[in-house]
Amino acid sequence: MSPREFAKRRKQLMKMMGEGAIAILPSAPVRIRNRDVDYAYRQDSDFLYVTGFEEPESVAALIPGRGHGEYILFCRDKDPIRETWDGRRAGPEGAVNDHGADDAFPVGDIDDILPGMLEQCERVYYTMGVHPEFDKRLMGWVNALRAQVGKGKHTPHEFIVLDHVLHDMRLYKSRAEMTAMKRSARIAADAHVRAMKVCRPGMREYEIEAEFLHEFRRRGTEPSYHPIVGAGENSCILHYTENDNVINDGDLLLIDAGCEYEGYASDITRTFPVNGRFTAPQRAIYELVLAAQEAAIDQIAPGKHCKESHEAAVRVITRGLVKLGILKGKVPALIKSEAYKRFFMHGTGHWLGLDVHDVGDYKVGDEWRLLEPGMVMTVEPGLYIPSGSKGVAKKWWGIGVRIEDDVLVTKQGNEVLTRHVPKEPGEIEQLMEAA
Ligand code: GLY
Ligand code: MN
Ligand code: MN
Question: Ligand 1 in contact with 380 (CB < 6 A)?
C-alpha cells in the first residue's frame, strides 16, 4: 500500500479531531509463546491502519496543526547488535525518510517527550483497554502533569474514545483497500480449489491444512486465522482447529480458511464430499445452505440493513428444515421461537477488513446500520447436525455444512470477492473428478 494512502488516512482523522487535539496509538506488544520464543508478530490493526509501520515498540502521535510536524513516530533506535540478532529497524531517521513520519524520536525517550506534547493539548484521542500496559503509562504521564498543575502545568481536559472515529473510517474501504481485499480473496479462493483437487479419503485433516499454508506462504500471505479443517463429525464443531483426524470416505469436509494480504483478511468456507460425490442427504443439506447463502447475498446492497442477509438466510433455512422433516411446525412460529438455532446457531456474517471480525458498529442508535458502497461483509450460513441429534433421522447425522463468501457492497449491489472457488454441488463434483 502506498505511503500516500496512509497519509490520506491520517489527514482525514486529524481533520475530524481538529486543532488542540492529540491522538495516541501504541503498537501491539510482542507476545511470548513459550520461554524465549515469541508468537509471530502481528501489528495492532488500528496502528497499522494509521501508520503502515510494522515494527513493535512503536507509538504514533497525531497532533493536527503542530508546527514541527503533525505525525510523530516513536520507534526503536538503530542498534547494530540487536539488528544482527532480531532484524532490521527503521530508527527515527528511517521513520521520517521511509515511513512518512514528520518527526520521530527513539521510543526510549518517550517519557521525556510525550508528556510535553500532551501538555499542549486540550483533547486526547485514545483507545482504552486494548493494551493495558500502555494505558497505565499514559495515565502515568497525565497524572504527572496533574501533580504539577500548581506549578503552572496544563493538563488535557477531555479524553475521547479514538476507536469510535477510527473504526468508522475502517468500515469504508478505499480503492487501495478494495484492491488488497480482492487479492486476499483470490489467493484464499485458489487455496480452496487446490484443497478440493488434492483431497482423498484416508488423508489427515492437517495434510489439507498444509495445502493452505503452502498456498498462502508461497504467495506472500499468511493465514488470517487458524484454519478449520473438519471432516465428518468434526464439520459440526464451529471452531474446530485440531485438524488431526483421518478424512474418511463418505464424509463431508468443512474448511474455513483465509489469508491476510497487506494486513487485509479473507475468510472463506467451503464444504465438499471427501470422495468427490455428495450422498443424497449431504446434497439436500448442502443445497439448502447454498439457497440460504444465495438469498442472503441478494440482500447485500446499498440501503439494505446489515441484518437483512441473516433474516433472509433464517427464512430459507427454516423453510427448508421443515420441508426435510428436521423441524416440525409452522415456519413463522419456528422463526419466532428461533427453533432453527439448534442447527444454525451463528450469525450470517460480519464486517471484514484488517481484522477477520472487523471493526465498525452494527447499529446506529437503535437501528441496524444501512449498508453503503465500500463496506465488506461475509455471508456464511450453515447447518450442523451432529450424530446423536435427538428427534432427527439418522441419515442426517454427522452432516455439517457452512458456505462462506466475502462480499463487497458496490453502488449497484454487491461483488462477491471470493467467487473464484466453486460452490454449486455439480461444479464441485466436476472439479474433484477432473483432478
Ligand atoms: N473464520 C471465522 C468466521 O468465519 O467468522
Ligand atoms: Mn466469517
Ligand atoms: Mn470463516
Answer: yes
